[in-house]
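Listing S7. Sequence submitted for prediction.
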Amino acid sequence: MDEEAIKKQTQETAKTLFGKGIKMDPPYLMWKAFDRDLANDFSRFITGNLYSRKVLTLPERQMVTCAMLAALKAKDELRLHVNAALNVGCDPRKLAEVFFQVATYAGMPAVNEALGVFKKVLEERGEWPIAP
């Protein structure tokens, strides 16, 4: 794929993931403040190449991402990716279940933090409480 096609794919995937819902600055802006070229390289790799692969769907990829970020207790990144998961159609009840699954491997403090982040995102989006 040529450079222009990767750039377009990166922009389209980023818009799908992060284009609606809560308002927050993506990590890309921080990367760019330090090194514009490297920020563009990271963005093209992560969003343009990895997130655009078809082996996993975007909802599957986002659920995996949310589980990993919950286990790492990476709250800011989790906030961004919970919103992205909802943007690509992840079922909120399944996301909650993903966070409960984290207990087995990362403990209840990680679950509690993830659920707290998840609830705040749902509230900001006007989607709390979760419908049964």
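Caption to Listing S7: primary sequence and predicted structure tokens for the chain studied. DSSP finds eight helices and no strands in the chain. The domain at 3-124 is CATH 1.20.1290.10 (AhpD-like).
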